[in-house]
Protein 1
Amino acid sequence: MCFLKRSSLTYRRRLLSFLFGVLALAECSTAQQPPVVPRDSTEVWIAGKRICISYGRPSTQGRRIMGEYVPYNRVWRTGAGKSTTLVTDADLELGGMEIPKGSYSLYTFPTEAQWKLIVNKQTGQWGTVYSSQQDLARIAMEKRSLSSPIERLTFALERTSNASGVLRLEWERMSLSLPFKVSPTPIVASPRDSSTMFLSGKMVTVNYGSPSARGRKIIGGVVPYNKIWRTGANETTTFSTAADLTIAGVTIPKGTYSLYTLPSRSSWQLIVNKKIPQSGLDYDQRSDLARIKLKTKNLPSHVERLRISLKATDSNSGILTIAWEKTSLSVPISLKGS
């Protein structure tokens, strides 16, 4: 009997020790978990349409935010937890960029001098999951300093008229803003288009998004002077060749490239870039293969949709033409060595 009692007592002591150990581990695990970041939202009604932003709202907690917690020159989730989302029942013109009604994720690209808001078509993902190929727009925001610090990241949507408003983003001592307005006409996502020619049996193809003018000023407006232009819409414009080419005397080895342009009032340059695939907004000058001067001329009639075409002029050569509004740009292409 004594043997049985001592065994029972030992078992109870071991069981209690085990339970206390489990509780201690649970408390330690709970203590090590990061604080829960609350979810918040802001909304505004304009022209009878609802516009809403939902986001994780981290706090400063004594940390230095700009340049450290939010590093410069890197895409930032602009929130915490799940991705920050924009849901709009209205077609918007946000900082001059067209945003069709729907749901989007919002990111930012901060630098010490300027911030850009990134409107991304992928939704439902964790905030750290980002694909530049899904970018719809990157828009420069107006930046100013605040006299008093803001403890928690704060988004705000404010109505400024019956058809317009402003998006604000504030944290620490920084305030960013971006005006927007409800589009008076429906915005349709720009369709993809392509053009192909054959030179001595070798295929050359250009594939691009084809936006429409929709009554807007294009050259010098939607397409500003002295800034790199994606030369299309949404995904990057691509140029593929099955043969080595020369474009206006510049050698382009066979392969696939991204095309951009650099417009000015006096001349345009075609940029052949080696980085693909990418968003049309994700331009890296370090990947440029060539910059080639384009021939420009005025058109007698209006071209509503951006049109990029390839046309063979003989078996070994052809011409690439870009036309929009009342501007036409062109450059000769030929097989290398022909």
Protein 2
Amino acid sequence: MIKNSRRYLAALAIAACYAGQSVGVAQAADYPSQPITFIVPYAAGGSSDTRSRQLAQKMGESLGTTVVVENRPGASGNIGTSQIARAKPDGYTIGLGNFAPMAVNKSLYGKTLPFDPEKDIQPIALIERGAMVLGVGSQSPYASVGALVKDGKAKPNHLNYASTGAGGASHLVSELFKDSAGFNAVHIPYRGGAPASNDLIAGNVDFYLELASLFIPHTTSDQPRIRALAVASEERLKALPNVPTFKEQGIDLVASNWFGVIAPAGVPQDIVARLNKAVNQALGEESYRSVVQAQGAEVAGGSPEDFQAFIRSESERWSKLIEQKNITVQ
């Protein structure tokens, strides 16, 4: 009797297991059957928000549902990214994963980071890389990278540079630039790109490395207020064709601030594949690509595995620099 009971319970357990698998398959086959939430870990109105809304619309058209963008800013992207990581892994909550929370903040915040980018996040696809551009004010005496570096070497710590805060892309890439070129300069952090740009234009800081999208309006107008000296990409940008790369000027510097689509770990792989397909379809549309390129960025794309490998390489690269320079957040 006991043996029969055990066999019966075992049979029930196996049946339940198969039933759960069947439900999962059915859910994946019906996906999506409701709107999808797209969390942006930054404030509305910025470049991250704008790009997310463009992508969300295209993804919704491809998936046959509405993709609703929700902004969850704060703590250098940690708050919104944490909400993505903690969401139910059913494919109905996805979001924007970028440079800081995915590749840098673990080194800056350590155990206080409320999520693990490696364990708690499922990468979907890298959507774009925004090459960093070296800018000086239009009244600056520096007309080339060589002139700026020469002065920096001749007068250690005479130059200063702006950033959007300790540990941000503009700060880290500037530190990499100094190391690659062999000179020193004083770091002046600002609370955002607008005040940093304003002080660059006013001549209060000597240089600033930032996304091309922030500089383009100031460099291509009839009366330019910022002079772009170099771009940290392998090739010149279509939006700034007259600005040479760092490599063209003898400095081995390629660095970008990048965006991708992420989901919570544990999302079924067939749903991951559907989301990845929708992202890549959006990136392939000329109407989308032209907007990205006009703002000085490079359309990416690829598989979830490609994005995962890219995140790992970026994490390794910047964690070494953060440790070497003893960079901390205030």
Protein 3
Amino acid sequence: MKNLSLVSLALFILMFVSVNIQATPAIKNAGTQINQKVPEISALDIAGNKQTIQQLSGDKGLVLVFFRSADWCPYCKKHLVEINEWNEKINNLGFNIAAVSYDSIEILDMFSKKKQLMYPLLSDQNHHTMKSLNVLNDEEEPGDKHYGIPFPGVMVINSEGVLLYKYFYKGYKNRVKMPTLFKQLQNLEG
């Protein structure tokens, strides 16, 4: 009986540890390496104009957010609205925000206006930006419905175009926590 109790306890502990390990999101090593110059982006704003990192940056730099879709991804939609709530605070630190997806300009325009976003959404339908920044989701193959989506995440690029901070996760449910990002920005030298 005592052995059965010990085996039961051991199985419970093993199951608990296994569940907790699976609940912890896996960090994805995507994107340009920290302290390296970031390749120029090749994405269009909702007016169809090509944007550069320099054009999008504030005095200290740019918070570049990567999201799957403002059309079909509920986690992305919620996160984009949350980011909007932090936009002014982040701008006050000297950083501007822009968010990139593979969505069409029309989808991004409609979402941006509906949610009254105060930062630009950028379309990377040709995937050049996702590929050059090494954030293209490699779980999707060319020809797949969602080919072209990035790994969800964020890059903080200083005014010189150098990557200061990045945060990417595998999967689609996890996003950077805005209070955590805000604290990181406060601690960065742009």
Protein 4
Amino acid sequence: MIRTEALTRLRLLVGSMRPPLVASARDRELPPLQPGQAIQARVEQQSAGGHLVAVNGRVFEFKLPEGTHPGDFLRLVYVNSEPRPTFALLRIERAIDQQDARLSDAGKLLASLRAVEQDAPGSPRMQSSAPVMPAEFPDAPRAALLLRDALSLSGLFYESHQAQWVMGSRTIAQLEQEPQGRLPPLPAPTEKPAYSPALIPVADAADAAQAVAEGAELLPAPADSMTAGAQEPVATPARMPAHPDSFPLIRQQLAALETGHVAWRGEVWPGQTMDWEVGEAPDPEHPEAARVWRTELRVRLPRLGEVLARIELGRPGVRMQIIADSEEHNAALRANADALAAAFAAAGLPVAGLEVQTREA
């Protein structure tokens, strides 16, 4: 049962806006809704009495503002069912057609990404500005955790980490360790949009009504703003779909989604640069099995020269291919191959194959 004061506020909300949408006399069967519930409806087609609108699995006939077309979406708040189902119309989101096509915020963002300079052909690489490890090399378990964090906190997985924060499994302090978490907020808009679709949230219609009573504005004041067609909002900094400084990271996210690979470049310890790629692919020997993880490391070491290591983790275990830059360095790597395989096995990763080769000149 809705509280009396909440119902009063809801009626105030309806009175402060355009005339409410009242279903035709024939439409009395109502889906389970609570007064004040915010919902989205879709205009299906025109009818003799106005427009047929799909609301939570039911179709109602409403008289909608001129210029409303099939395919448009309506943001509504359910008011009551007596004498007929009644809804408050918050705004109309226009369907895109060939005569009046506009880019969505996501489309504008993708278009903006084209202007981001690419640092090299192929997959864009994440760049680390600080060494992953201290000057004194840590033990293997600690080194593995630091390398994991280098990828995990790179910003590539920021949105999934935000979801973890919502669920309570990640803290704000952890989010602020990532590049997006350290970005300054976008500037406030300098101009009022020509068309403002709901300047306050309507998750709680009663609170929205109270905001209206205190002078907040839910819909634009001009009476012809809905009938003449929704106008494009004036572009202001606050309407950017993402912070411009995050565009390089977004491009890297898109590249990772497209290729299934993540590329990273940085210092693993002071003065020691490493190129690192991680990805997954089907197992050619076991196509019916799960996909395998592949990683590739390229590093130039003082005693071993340039070393390229390709590691594949699949159902049979770990397969490694190590490529040296000279026969001398090849011999040194071979001499320690058994110790390397034993270290993998001790970590629970049995080595199914280990090959050391020399790079062709």
